[in-house]
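call fold(seq) -> tokens
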Amino acid sequence: MPRIVVLAPYAKRSGGPEACHQLVDCLIRLGFSAELWLLNESEVEQLVQAREQGMEFRNANVQAQARVSPVEEYQQYQCPAFHASKVGDDVIFVLPELYLLLLPLFRGMPCMVWWLSVDNALISMGYMNLNHLRQPTVTHLVQSAYAARFVAALGLKSQYLSDYTVVSREIVPALAERPTSVALVGGSKVLLDLTELERILRLDQGIDVRVIHGMSRSEVYGCMRNARVLADFGKFPGKDRMVREALLLGCLVATGSDGAALGEDDFSLPSIYRQPAHDLSKVAALLSHMVKYPEHHQAAQRAAVQRIEGEYAQFTQEVLSVFAATLNGSGCT
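ret:
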């Protein structure tokens, strides 16, 4: 049985790296031989230089520093560390799209590109020959319908390999018992004027506003457990986790209509909850109504919650489907 080696950035806390840990853990649980290759920034630069010098991994001795992620929430995943290998056709590498520039290193050998956050790939794609993506030994995996559409636009076929959402499912207050509050996701990726939106909402008597930015992980979860509504108007380069975490923690959710939030296929949210970020008055009116009449909106978002609750089982089936060809040593399809 081939060894499956998944690349991921070292010591990074975000959805993509966690998905890579989940994949290795799932493969191990299903009886596959899988390892995680955690790379720091200087090692990625060294690999880019090796690619520029014409190096290829096939039939080469690849050395790596064995690492375990220091991120606390990743400790729940079993992820043997990749450290050294004589690379032949019995090794299959899985590259998140963040590492597209490294693809020439894997020329002539089976490998997989996992499109987790489409936006991360755009810079790399400007510096590479896109024909590397079209090699018959390269399989394309997509985490979201947004990624699937992007990959199809490149003329490439893909298979779904999503991820799953993990939160502490302790008892949370019912919506009617929570303060009449809105949690706004902040940060550089937000596409609307948060200051103006916050001002409009605060004029609506009785609605409290809290911006999620610069908080610890526990503070973010505490905010979501006590807010009635989470509003995330970010770029959604993939099927982002915060919206899904909020829904599992009992929040109502509203998003913009960009990236993976464009359609219902990635989050199962009706179109009313996916508003254009530029129309602040419409966004504010929606958030205000959700805060004041939560029971009506909770019923409309129940399908989204149920889908997220089924992610673990769905991911397991996707892993089996994607990697079934390796069971008899046939590599990528």
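The longest strand covers residues 3-9.
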